[in-house]
Amino acid sequence: MFGADIRIHVTFLLVLVFVWFTEAPPQGPAGAGRGLALVAIILGSVLVHELVQAAAGRRMGVPARAIILLPIGGVTLLDEGQQMAAESGAGAVPLWKRELRVAAAGLLASLLIAGISAVVVLSMYPWVGLWKLPLVHSGHLLRSLVWCNLFLVGFNLLPAYPLDGGRVLRALFARRVQSLEATRQAVSLGQGIAILMMFAGMVWNTWLVMVGVCLFLGAQLEERSLVFHSVLEQVRLEEVMLTDFATLSPGDTLQDALHKAVHCLQDDFPVIRGSDMVGVISKQKILQALRASGNSYVQSAMNQVYEVGQKGESLSGAFHKITQGGLTLIPVVEDQRLVGIVTLQNLMHSMAMLAESRRLREN
Q1: What is this structure's pTM?
Q2: Contact partners, residue 332, CB within 8 Å, separation at least 6
Q3: Does domain 238-362 bear CATH number 3.10.580.10?
Q4: Do residues 105 and 57 touch, judged by C-beta distance below 8 A?
Q5: Which of 49, 261, 312, 330 could bridge 283 with an S-S bond, Cβ 3.0-4.6 Å?
Q6: What residue ranges of the chain are covered by domains with CATH 3.10.580.10?
C-alpha cells in the first residue's frame, strides 16, 4: 500500500493470546470471537495510523519500502536512495520538521477515528458508557474503538523510539550528533520507558505490561534496522563480492549451461565473450528457455541489459539496484574489467553476517 510492503509483527499474536486468556473466558462461547474482533480493531487502528504517515512521507519525497505493524504503532523502513536525495537536495526539509509533519498526520488520523467513533457511541448507543471501566475490553467493542485510537495517540506522544514522539526526539538529537548515535540514544530511551511501563503494569494494569513488551521489541527492531543500514552505508562491494565464480559463453548450449549450474552453487551467471561481458543469465531462465524452446544457445536466452557495480561502491547502492530493478546479479567491474559478482543470495547472507558481527563488537 502506497508502494510499501505491509508486514504484521509477531507481537500481534501475543496480543491475541493475551486477550483470549484474560478476557474471553468470562464471556462464554462468544468470548473468542469478540477477542479476535478486539485485536482486529487494534490492528485496523494501527494500520490507518501508519498508512496516513506513509502517504505523508511519500508527499515529502521519502516513500516507505516496508511498514512493520506492532500493536503500539509501526516500524517504517525507508527507501535509502530517496531518503538521501530528500535530505541533500535543494530546499530539503530538515529531518526534525519532516518527522514532526509525518507524526502529526498519523496522530490526526487516529484522533479523527476516535472522534467519529465517540460521536456514534454517544448518539446511537449512550448506554455503552464511554467512560466506563475497563475502557478497552472485548465485551464493549465500540467503546474500545474510541479508546484504542486515543491510547494510540497518547502512547505515540511519548519520547520513546520507535513511537512518533521518539522519532521526533531522534531527529532533534541528530542536529548535534551523527544520525547513528542519535538513533542509538533514542532507542536506549525507548527501551528504558518500555521497562518502566512493564513494572507499572504489574502494579496498575496488565495492558501496560503488554504495551511495554511491544515497545521494547519495537525499539530492538529499530536497533537491528539501524545496524543493518550502517552496514549498507559503510561496507564496500569489494569486501563481499564473489571472486571465484563460474561464467558462461554466449555460444554455450542451454544443456551445457544447465549442467554447469547443477554442479556449482551459483544461481546466476555472467556471460562472457572473450574478455567482454555481454549479458547475464539465471538458472531459472535456463530452465524456462529449455522448457519453452528446447536446447538452444545461451545468447538467445540471456539478458543483455544489466546493471554493474564498482569495487568501491557501497552495499547500499547495490541493494538499491537489486531491489528496485528486480535483479539477481550485479557484475562488479574495475577499469571495465569483470573482477567479481554480487548475487542477491550472497548479498543478503553477507549483510546479515556483517550486521551480526558489528553488533557483537559493539556489545
Answers
A1: 0.63
A2: 237, 238, 241, 308, 309, 310, 311, 338, 339, 340, 341, 342
A3: yes
A4: no
A5: 261
A6: 238-362
